[in-house]
Amino acid sequence: MPNSSSMAQFLLLALADRRELQLLHFWLFLGISLAALLGNGLILSAVACDQHLHTPRDFFLLHLSLTDLGCICTTVPKAMHSSLWGTITISYTGCAAQVFFFLFFISAEFFLLTIMCYDRYVAICKPLHYGTLLGSRACAHMAAAAWASGFLNALLHTANTFSLPLCQGNALGQFFCEISQILKLSCSHSGYLRELGLLGVSACLAFGCFVFMVFSYVQIFRAVLRIPSKQGQHKAFSTCLPHLSVVSLFVSTGTFAYLKPPSISSPSLDLALSVLYSVVPPALNPLI
């Protein structure tokens, strides 16, 4: 019976069988990754070099760009390599590293989006307290908490998942290493339930952040609608709608990918959704 300690590699899902489609996927991933690198790189350079952009919102935007770059660099290079050379294998260590870093960056991004929602709430609903509630020290602490929470979440899930004995082969139904796919290979009932418990805790935490964002935006829109001038309303909306668009894209694609009805599930749909929530948002965030 093979287990996690003796398994040398995993087999990833091929994006296509035909060589022409493999090359098409390579160029598509290359274009997306270059767009993400260019957009997020410009944001990092602008915020770092321009003194006028050293505001709390831009500080968190810099960290959001770092998480976007991390997500792209974790999954896309391997997918490009697989499409170009036709290889679908990934080493056990490489798979564990991919799971850890993807969870790390995606978790940190969600926590940063929650913090950025709080930033918009304070700026519009409590403008007189903005400098007090979001001073440089408070911003640094919140950013550090987002990164630390992402690291802890990734460490717990990765350590537990890769401690499970695997006896259902080594083929993953995904183009990158994903916990849900690895769990399908497990033959440890207790370990499986333990990971499901961790996923449940993470889901509850994510749902709590989502409820906070919804509540914050309800308060924000109520405050904006009370602004007497149309120009003031337009200015307030213009500072919130980009963040709301990023949150909607991030949450909707990820939620549908994991909570879609089993009746409409198919390998091609699962693959398309995984690209939507793991690759597309980091590329579109800078544009939004």
Essential attributes:
globular; 288 residues; two-stranded antiparallel ribbon; 10 helices; mainly alpha
Main sheet characteristics? 2 strands, antiparallel
Class from helix and strand fractions:
mainly alpha
- Please mark out the parts with pLDDT under 50 across 5 or more consecutive residues, or reply none: none
Number of helices: 10
Rg computed from alpha carbons, rounded to a whole number of angstroms:
21 Å
Instruction: Give the termini separation.
Output: 49 Å
Number of strand elements: 2
Give the helix proportion (percent range): over 70%
In what range is the share of β-strand residues?
Answer: under 5%
Average pLDDT across residues? 83
Q: SSE order in H/E notation?
A: EHHEHHHHHHHH
If you had to describe this structure to a student in words, what would you say it looks like?
The chain is 74% helix and 2% strand. It contains ten helices and two strands. The chain has a two-stranded antiparallel ribbon. The chain is globular and about 65 Å long. 33% of the residues are buried.
Quick rundown:
The chain is an all-alpha fold and 288 residues long. The chain has helices at 19-49, 56-85, 92-125, 130-133, 136-161, 179-183, 189-225, 230-259, 267-278, 280-284, and strands at 9-11, 89-91.
Helix/strand layout:
Elements: E1 9-11, H1 19-49, H2 56-85, E2 89-91, H3 92-125, H4 130-133, H5 136-161, H6 179-183, H7 189-225, H8 230-259, H9 267-278, H10 280-284
Helix pairs in contact: 1-2, 2-3, 3-5, 3-7, 3-8, 5-7, 8-9
